[in-house]
Design a protein that fits this description.
Structural class: alpha+beta
Distance between the termini: 43 Å
Amino acid sequence: MVSQRPFWQRKKLDEMTESEWESLCDGCGRCCLHRLEDEDTGEVYTTCVSCRLLDTHSCRCTNYPQRKKQVPDCIQLQPADVANFTWLPVTCAYRTLAEGRPLADWHPLISGDPNSVHEAGISVQDKVVSEENVDPEDYEDHIVVWVGDE
């Protein structure tokens, strides 16, 4: 008998196909935001300043296949590394599953609606500014706390 549970409940992250892995992304855009680390404490702060490739309305990369060429420090999430990405928001499916938690009801794989992440207020849709419009010296003026990260 074949299991009727969805792939994210049956498989470990490192067992997923590339397509399954990619489908875990909820489209919130939070991983595309600049972060600042306090050199003394190691604490990481998230800003509302996005990578220049993030479409700030759709919350999708405007050149996903070539992003590493255009933004060399773009972090490409890999199944083997996700446990180390504590900087990811607690709402992120990759972090959620790595920590053994279920996907949220608003996640598109659960809701069946790609807009549910925006409707739930989880995404950065229309709430961020591109790095092209902010001097890096001013990033600390743009530190924010997002829904779910309180």
